[in-house]
Specification:
The complex is a heterodimer. Chain A is α/β, with parallel strands linked by helices. Chain A contains 9 helices and 10 strands. In chain B, the strands form 4 sheets. Chain B has a 6-stranded mixed β-sheet, with helices on both faces. In chain B, strands 4-5-7-6-12 form a 5-stranded mixed β-sheet, with helices on both faces. Chain B is globular and about 70 Å long. The chains are: A alpha/beta, B alpha/beta.
Chain lengths: 305, 413
């Protein structure tokens, strides 16, 4: 059975990518199961979707424990523990990362000795990664080696049929380009085997203790625990204030910020809390003197040592 | 017949479409909403001739469903979790009207705390209502059982509403290959609704949902509903046999998987049972004599088929994806009541609580359940009930509690 996991951010098309690959496998006669993992998902928040494919009916369900292929559409998620990108990877897992950095750099960074491939990202796409879903599906299809180019095309067309020819054409370009780029690695992903009784370790079950009611009630006593959730990592665009142009009308930007992520310093300068700004760019649109710029995070990171 | 990759929600919608439902009172709730979205899309494009009404709550939705069914039209509706509970007064109310319709419930754990992922405590709250209950384990089964459910609900000895249950996420948002039958074939299996005398017309006045101020008529009417529910078992068997003949897919009241020669049996319902099937295959490879029994029908409970399927087994591990506070697993109690006093009842009946709020059940946990049965059989007494919960998971919860300052008294010291 093939077990594939796609990681990206809400809005980058990971559910669509999993469906393109799932449909392609289905068209090739595989039994297929694909599903996105929803939660409190938002645009920019880490999400994943998965695909299982086999010749026999699939009985496994839910999250994939040991993936054969992990596709990462947004390289900034790799170091984020909450994104779970590295969960369950073994020496036989193939990792495919959309990135402009070298594969060797990533191998060192995540201490991974297995097969790690990269898919370059168009510079113009970096902020939004609009077609990364299609590219991820196309590359994954080639790495499995079980999907002809024409089948990938049919699957992309089927999944996007409601969106019109122009969008289909642009996604197809990306999907087929990624498919072609992976030519030398075609078929490098191998189907995983079933987990056997001999491999199994007995589960470490515990008897739950009876806790006091105030601890066992699902209540949050600590104030503002949402501070602990660094939603700043959802951001692909960063609002940057040019204080030379800012005319200190702080009540405009701070009032419009839906996350209360703009505070006001003693001297009247608005300051952005980048740990919690989700990058909605409402402040950019509202700022009367146009003193807030939208800078792609990637560009910002490259300029900042 | 077409074969398509669709979600469990879309499969339920296809069931309603192929059943040619006339009326669909609706109210959105995650993870069910995709069902009404799909049907709304079809109605908008003229592909389905159905009147959809957005109600102001699930309580009104079930009231409208029962009332519309009493006029003699075919009714479909869907909900989930808190929505089902919000409707609970009418869930217990409409069966007594003996007006048949189909309600799809997409299981999702109940609050508190709030979750989106599945367990069966929601649908089991409707267990004693007079709705019949069918539980599905694949997307294909969701479509097929929706069709079977109409036949069952409208059967002249039954005449009761039916709940078709599927698990949120694991089926609702998961695409699997599904055979969508030809409408003509479905029409032959499931002709238009013949309401017989259940026909509320302006020209034929009728009082529904009446008051009986006396225990005697009350007892009569309530017990009649129970007797009609019991008729669901033979009726289901007839209908499932017809379905198998028409479409080639078998849906007995019980699904039995490698259980005929098994010494040890896993007993559970819903989509997690397919995980158990996988575990059974692994254990069979290792030479363990293990099988799976999964009830499709929860109401009526298939007493006699269960006695037969489990006769002579050494042990049964009941995996309850639900929790009755102060008692434990609901299926465990129900199965115990079926097996108690039977001469060839399984020696060991063990209770496991797992999959609450969609918590995964790992293959090694199924293996360990069988080991627990073996040890219990050697000792000759049943094991204590067990929550599937690991030391790592407890550590995870402790971390959350620390963030939430759950141990306030420590701070006050």
């Amino acid at each position: 059975m093939y077990r594939i996991r796609f990681h990206g951010r809400g809005g980058q098309g990971m559910k669509t990518a999993s469906r393109m690959l799932g449909t392609a496998l289905f068209l090739e006669g595989f039994q297929v199961q694909d599903a996105p993992r929803y939660g409190a998902e938002r645009r920019g928040a880490p999400i994943f979707a998965y695909v299982r494919a086999a010749r026999d009916p699939i009985h496994e369900r839910g999250v994939i424990r040991e993936p054969d292929l992990v596709v990462v559409a947004d390289d900034s998620l790799v170091p984020v523990p909450a994104a779970g990108v590295l969960q369950g990877i073994t020496a036989r897992t193939v990792m495919l990362i959309s990135t402009n950095e070298a594969a060797a750099t990533w191998r060192d960074r995540i201490n991974f000795s297995g097969s790690l491939l990269t898919l370059p990202v168009e510079t113009s796409e970096q902020a939004e990664l609009r077609f990364v879903g299609a590219a991820s599906a196309g590359a994954a299809a080639r790495l499995l080696g079980a999907i002809p180019r024409a089948t990938l095309e049919a699957a992309v067309r089927e999944e996007l049929s409601a969106l019109g020819e122009d969008i289909i054409r642009r996604n197809l370009e990306q999907a087929l380009d990624a498919f072609d780029r992976m030519a030398e690695h075609a078929g490098c992903v191998n189907e995983g085997t079933a987990f056997s009784v001999a491999d199994a370790k007995a589960p470490d079950w515990v008897d739950l203790p009876l806790d006091e009611a105030d601890a066992a009630a699902a209540a949050i006593h600590a104030g503002a625990t949402s501070v602990e959730v660094r939603t700043g990592l959802w951001r692909v665009l960063r609002p940057v204030i040019d204080y030379d142009r800012c005319n200190r009308c702080w009540w405009v930007c701070s009032e419009f910020c839906p996350d209360s992520a703009i505070t006001v310093a003693a001297d009247g300068r608005p300051e952005i809390d980048y740990d919690h700004c989700k990058g909605c760019m409402i402040c950019v649109a509202q700022c009367p003197p146009h003193a807030i710029a939208a800078v792609p995070e990637q560009e910002f990171a490259e300029k900042t040592p | 017949m077409t074969r398509a990759l669709i979600t469990g929600n879309q499969a339920a919608a296809w069931g309603a479409r192929l059943a040619r439902a006339d009326y669909m009172p609706s109210f959105p709730i995650t993870p069910q909403t995709e069902i009404i979205e799909t049907i709304a899309g079809w109605i908008d494009q003229g592909e389905m001739d159905c009147r959809m009404a957005m109600m102001e709550s699930e309580h009104s939705m079930i009231t409208a469903a029962g009332a519309a069914a009493a006029t003699g039209v075919r009714v479909f509706t869907a909900t989930s979790s808190q929505g089902l509970l919000y409707a609970m007064e009418m869930i217990y109310g409409v069966p007594g009207m003996r007006a048949p319709f189909v309600l799809v419930n997409v299981s999702r754990g109940l609050q508190t705390p709030v979750t989106l992922e599945p367990d069966h405590t929601d649908v089991l709250a409707a267990r004693d209502s007079g709705f019949l209950q069918i539980h599905c384990s694949t997307c294909q089964e969701v479509l097929d059982q929706t069709l079977i459910a109409y036949r069952l609900a409208e059967h002249h000895r039954v005449r009761l509403p039916v709940i078709v249950n599927l698990d949120g996420f694991y089926l609702s948002f998961t695409r699997e290959p599904v055979e969508i039958p030809d409408p003509a074939a479905v029409d032959r299996f499931l002709p238009g609704f013949d309401p017989e005398t259940t026909r509320f017309r302006a020209g034929e006045p009728l009082s529904q949902g009446v008051v009986v101020l006396g225990s005697v008529p009350y007892s009569y009417f309530r017990y009649e509903t129970h007797l009609a529910t019991l008729q669901g078992l033979p009726a289901y068997a007839e209908i499932a046999a017809e379905f198998a003949q028409a479409f080639g897919r078998e849906y007995g009241a019980l699904e039995t998987y490698k259980s005929d020669d098994a010494e040890w049996v896993l007993f559970m319902m819903g989509s997690f049972a397919t995980k158990a099937k996988d575990a059974v295959d692994r254990m069979r490879e290792a030479g363990w004599k293990v099988g799976l029994v999964r009830p499709r029908l929860l109401r009526p409970f298939p007493d006699e088929p269960l006695r037969q399927a489990l006769a002579g087994k050494r042990g049964v591990a009941v995996v309850d994806q639900n929790l009755s506070m102060g008692k434990g697993g609901v299926l465990h109690s129900e199965l115990a009541s079926v097996l108690y006093g039977q001469p060839d009842a399984p020696t060991i009946l063990a209770s496991f609580i797992g999959g609450l709020g969609g918590r995964d059940i790992a293959p090694e946990e199924f293996f360990e359940m069988i080991q627990v049965l073996r040890r219990a059989a050697e000792e000759g007494r049943p094991p204590t009930p067990r929550l599937l919960f690991t030391a790592d998971e407890l550590r995870e919860v402790r971390k959350l509690q620390a963030v939430a300052h759950a141990e306030r008294r420590e701070e006050l010291k």
